[in-house]
Amino acid sequence: MSNLNLPRQPAYDGINPEPAAFVQLGQDEWTTKILAGVGSGDLYGRAKDVRKRGAYYLHRTERGCFFLKILPSSAVETQLIADSVARWVSKKGVRASLLMPNYPRAIDENFFVFSYEYLQGRFARPNVTDIDAVSRTLALMHLALRELPDAHRIKDASSNRVMVLKARLGAIVEGRELWGPKPNSLLDICSANRGVFDLLESRWGCQPLHGDLVVGNIMFPESGGAPVILDFEDTAISFFPIDLDIALVVERFILMRSATDEQAYTLCRTFLSTYSSLINKKRFLIFSVGDCLRLLALRALLTLSEKEASGGQVNDSEWHKFYELFDRLGENQLLLSRIDEEFRIV
Asked: In this model, does residue 3 exceed pLDDT 50?
């Protein structure tokens, strides 16, 4: 129905994921194909995928340990764009996961393997030190993405994405097409939050974004130093206000991981104050953080709907994750209002 980049298997499950556990795999037709593509060594799969073909593997060799992505041919172009963005921001001083030379490689007529040096690291912790480091990296990345070559192509792809999702939103609100395990909830959410979709059509403060700054995509190396940014796939369709990247970090790194409201407020203030100082703007948020979070959850539900409408399959857990995020928005409204008062442009 569309050329929208539809989501593949998520690297991590749930809102608060744990680092993946890997187990060594035996030889079968699939693993033999992968090893034939990458060379000798041992192959490890994620424990949850061990009985099926997965998209993510570890490859241990005498030269070191590498993280492998196995992608269908239809996803190769998007991944190559993502890797070119990672190289660009790396040149600008942002630590990013970079594609190894001589990749991707075909493992059969339908699948390709991408290889990256495996990062021994951890997720960000909900403390001032880590959140400050995340903010510094995010500000540096946004400044680099502002100068990204060929940004007009990302802008065009983003406009197409908005057009497709807007049509899907209209079909749902009119009751013509409902998807997922809770179709009535989908209808209610889309109807009640239709107005926030206009944020995606904003012409203010737009630039290329990362687009998927969830916990697993910012890693702290065990060797120390600044965090490393992973997975720039969504940059190819993310030409929007920086508020969306910022709101997603607030949600996933702070609101969902803080023990108390006061801790969450302290971390939000740390995050936004550091970002503010690095871009030299005391107030820089164009939109309400709460509206941005509603938009992000709505956009995710529309994207899942588009995937099902296009013949794809979506796990119920993915649907429930975004329904849960909507349910939690009301709990954080007072805190988010305090943040808006301090950092939003009046």
From this structure: no
